[in-house]
Amino acid sequence: MKALVYTGPRRLEMRDVPDPVPGPGEVLIRVEASGICGSDIHAWLGHDERRPAPLILGHEVAGTIMGGPRKGERVTVNPLATCGTCPACREGRDNLCPDRQIISMPPREGGFAEYITSPERNLVPIPDSLPAAVACLAEPLACGWHGVRLANLALAEPAGQVLILGGGAIGFGAALAAKAAGSRDITLVEPNPLRRARLAEICDFRLEEAAPTTLNPELVIDAVGFAATRQTASDLVRPGGLIVHIGLGQATDGLNIRRMTLQEVTFIGTYTYTSTDFHDCVTAISDGRLGPCDWAELRGLEDGAQAFADIIENRIAAPKIVLR
């Protein structure tokens, strides 16, 4: 099969590689669409020791099952393969399974290829009316869905004023999820003028280049995860408010711990989503609660290397690039 292979820092090559072979409980999927995630960019830059070259990246996948009783069924793929038996899995927090594996991280090759394998239980059916390029957005959108769900559980109701840092697919998805959950006063911060202009065309959220210091948000969602955005979140969240941290941009620094302590600010770190969150997000996409979800820029798999370069150079207006 053809695959876009990460071969070293800032290097991607189209190669012929062997077709993957499903293991027990797995099926083969023909990939129709796969989104480029920030973690793919992180790996491509050589900053993720969990993803050593050579490796096929990509974990936001939709396609068609190629064999077994469900042959021909269109699906989107939950890329988190978990054990199903540990305490976390039994409690419905399977995203915290200590034995979890994810597509695009050894030993599982990713979705920038013609085929992948996946545990059958990870495949969520999608209606024929839903394009694969939209269905693959379930993965990044589920991250925001999960974060908003945890926030509203902690607050006991939908947040009143919400500030979201980062207008990529995770941050934009979190804004869509917050709106679907009942929040109405939502500000989305995106410093890239190209992306901010594109967001203005596709959403009705308040858009800002930088976080306004006049805001007093009950909930701040950091979908970037750098020291600077953590500083902003912990400086601006209202007393007794909540920070949901999704972004993985930088490992340390930034939080205003003194203010968080004196003002009893709650901090929740969120990782991906549970299988229930993923299923619920697919349903929300399918029934239109998250809008048309037609805002990704589509490119061919063979154009993937250029797409990575364009993303890192901030030449992309869309919140997401999907490779077909």
Description:
This protein is an alpha/beta fold. It has 2 domains: 2-137 and 296-323, Medium-chain alcohol dehydrogenases, catalytic domain (Quinone Oxidoreductase, Chain A, domain 1, Alpha-Beta Complex); 140-269, Rossmann fold (3-Layer(aba) Sandwich), CATH 3.40.50. Helices cover 29% and strands 24% of the residues. The chain contains 10 helices and 18 strands. The chain has helices spanning 38-44, 87-90, 132-135, 138-155, 169-181, 193-202, 227-236, 257-262, 275-286, 304-312, and strands at 2-8, 11-16, 26-35, 55-56, 60-65, 74-77, 80-81, 101-102, 115-119, 123-125, 161-165, 185-189, 206-208, 219-222, 242-245, 266-269, 297-299, 321-323. Strands 3, 5, 6, 9, 10, 17 and 18 form a 7-stranded mixed sheet that branches. The chain has a 6-stranded parallel sheet with strand order 13-12-11-14-15-16, with helices on both faces. It has a 3-stranded antiparallel sheet with strand order 2-1-4, with no helix packed on it. The longest helix has 18 residues, at 138-155. The two termini are 14 Å apart.
Briefly, what is this?
By secondary structure, this protein is an alpha/beta fold. The protein is built from 10 helices and 18 strands.
